[in-house]
Design brief:
single chain, globular, Helix Hairpins
Length: 286
């Protein structure tokens, strides 16, 4: 009988944490987090990490396991997560529970990533600095010139994706698209994906309430403490970017909070669009 990995996915604020903990308790499994921001120990409030009581209910992996000062990629997550999954299965688990909202990380575990070359950290730092100071629009002419295929395919408003493609071009001297083989890697365990949804009105209400709690819990102070790292990839995140704009004097706190709510709703829609293309997801309306 093959081992099984249950992946709980869905838009931000839908209720993945509670659902995954209940499922983990049922199967005697830990929860393997698949969130590209909750891994950073300096980022708690703005990433909505599980509460102390939730973390104590079952063991969690990849929560506060890394630091924002060190680059951590989806490729590294693929290697680390698969190593952990293999270890847990060898210890006697038949079913493991993974939960998160990072589609790229989930795809990395399920299907594997293409072997994109390791990139020059100085090139990345330079591109991230341009992204922070001049916006993603400043990078687009370079990407169009160096790799028109990727330019035509990716979300050009996603600064991190644009930087990733450009740094691969500049580090290797080859187009980023030349490394994309789209070949699926086989796993020696079964994968079942459970997608959680709610009505749009309820989901947006939960998002608005979460943002209010983040402000009450000290999001502004958390972002202030991360100022030395504001140009890192980790901080190019909804909830942090808007507060940095407020701290820079670019808007009022009320305007920043409104922007966080709006951008989080937009992010939730993008998450759902990402997963709706996957016919293997079994959807549950909470």
């Amino acid at each position: 009988m093959r081992k099984k990995l249950l992946i709980i996915l869905g838009p931000t604020a839908v209720g993945k944490t509670d659902y995954s903990i209940d499922l983990a308790l049922k199967y005697g499994s830990p929860v393997i987090s698949c969130d590209s921001r909750q891994i950073y120990k300096e980022m708690s409030i703005g990433t909505a990490v599980p509460s102390a009581s939730q973390l104590s209910a079952v063991k969690h992996y990849f929560i506060h396991s890394n630091t924002v000062s060190e680059l951590y990629t989806a490729g590294q997550y693929e290697r680390d997560a698969l190593s952990l999954i293999e270890k847990l299965f060898s210890e006697g688990h038949d079913t493991l529970v993974m939960a998160g909202g990072s589609g790229f990380y989930i795809d990395a575990v399920c299907n594997g990533l293409d072997d994109v070359p390791v990139c020059d950290p100085q090139i990345r730092a330079s591109l991230m600095s341009r992204l922070s100071s001049d916006g993603v629009e400043s990078l687009l002419p370079d990407l169009k010139r160096l790799d028109p295929s990727t330019y035509a395919d990716i979300d050009l408003s996603n600064g991190r994706r644009v930087v990733r493609a450009l740094e691969a071009c500049l580090s290797s001297g080859k187009p980023f698209s030349s490394f994309k083989t789209h070949s699926r890697k086989e796993r020696d365990f079964d994968i079942e994906k459970i997608g959680l949804t709610r009505s749009r009105e309820e989901l947006y209400g939960r998002i608005n309430g979460r943002v209010s709690r983040m402000i009450d819990d000290g999001l502004v102070e958390e972002v202030e403490s991360l100022a030395p790292y504001r140009d890192t990839a980790a901080l190019q995140t909804v909830g942090y970017k808007e507060i940095f704009t407020y701290l820079d004097g670019g808007c009022s706190l009320e305007e920043a909070v409104d922007s966080i709510r709006k951008n989080t709703r937009h992010y939730a829609k993008k998450q759902l669009t990402w997963w709706r293309r996957d016919s293997s997801v079994k959807w549950i309306n909470l």
